[in-house]
Write a structure and sequence with these properties.
Layout: H1 3-11, H2 26-29, H3 41-45, H4 48-51, H5 56-79, H6 87-90
Amino acid sequence: MNALARTAMRTVLPRARTAAPSRTMAAESRAHLYKDIPTNWDQLKNNIWLSDAGALPVIFVLTFACGLSATFIGYNCMANPDVRITTSKRQQLIRTWE
């Protein structure tokens, strides 16, 4: 809505204000939730991240991505001959262990 339409709505076509209560901030509606790092099971159940339904897909995607990357790193550490974990094999230029 542009400025001209807003001005016209206020001056030319005034409407009655609705008697709806004003909205409060989210801090009052979530005052019962635990906002710090949870230390026991009850605090974990009332955690602000786990109580919000919109955060669950984000948590699932991040968990999947971290698990996939950890699997890929573990696979490369075990199967890739270019990854040298032992100190005796790190400094050799020619691979003698294959």
